[in-house]
Amino acid sequence: MKNLIDIKRLEKSEIERIIELAQEFKTGVRQSSVAGKTACMMFFENSTRTKISFELASQRLGMNVIHFDGASSSLSKGESRKDTFDNLKAIGIDTVIVRTREDGFIDSSLKELASPLSFVNAGDGVTAHPTQALLDYFTMKEKLGTVAGKKVCIIGDIVHSRVAKSNFALLSKFGARLHAVAPAYFKPAKTDFPVSYHDSLEGIKGADVVMLLRVQKERLEGAFDAQNYIDKYQLNSEILNNYAPNALLMHPGPVNRGVEITSELLDSERGKIILEQAHNGVFVRMAVLEMINSEENS
Ligand code: CP
Fold first, then answer.
1. Spatial contact of 25 and 283, defined as CB atoms under 8 Å apart
2. Ligand 1 pocket, 253 CB below 6 A?
3. What is the per-residue pLDDT across 44-66, written as a single tens digit (0 to 9) for each?
4. Shortest-distance atom of ligand 1 to CA 99
5. Does residue 298 have a pLDDT over 70?
6. Could you tell me the domains of the chain?
7. 172 CB near ligand 1 (under 6 Å)
8. Residue 81 CB contacts under 8 Å (≥ 6 apart), including other chains
9. 115: CA distance to ligand 1 center in Å?
């Protein structure tokens, strides 16, 4: 594994290896083999969880961490992307961790490069967020043992969600039953995976996992009737306990309290897994950086 761009391109065995490594890092039985390598954090879109956990993961592995600030870089003086990456490689960067609004940013960058540089996709546009899906899967495995045959239902703004797409890609490889609850305007025109769509929260009935998504207002083109969405799709403890009393409640974050979820549910016992997801993100990202930067891989 030289790059991590999209879950679709990973073999099941590679995903299993990442999960195994993450577990070893979490339990402290694994030491880093990539100390001294250098990661460059290139975040063109805002982030809290992904950015901080990649930085902490790199530090725990003994890697150097450099922050690239687009606005103060020579990209803003007209330097091309190809020249930027070739210079980063020449300076000594091993892995670039990228968050961008542009779908397919890494693929288009890789085509142009003179010398190899590893990339990790930390979320591109509405396409993919592979490390989020990996940490979600890690958390599901911790809690459920397996996702095979389990009903996983994702609620909300599926069309703009790179998290939903990466989760569908991963969970379909491991035999989960994929469901989604979304109004028509958040349902993608086509889907690559066998997802059963529902237009009401009754769709979560009997789910083993219920995953909420934030409405991505920054990507909406038309007017959005927030109150109508809240009336039909906001999850609270009563609805969750009624339809899916045993489900894991998950959310990739950031949460918009009072929109997709009530504060009382988020702050309840059932909401606690959401912070466990964020915690697990560090170990999963350690595993990804270890696999990409390991000498076995060069
Ligand atoms: N889940 C997630 O990607 O959160 P951030 O945008 O805060 O990184």
1. yes
2. yes
3. 999 999 999 999 999 999 999 99
4. 8
5. no
6. 7-128+280-297 (3.40.50.1370), 130-278 (3.40.50.1370)
7. no
8. 75, 109, 112
9. 30
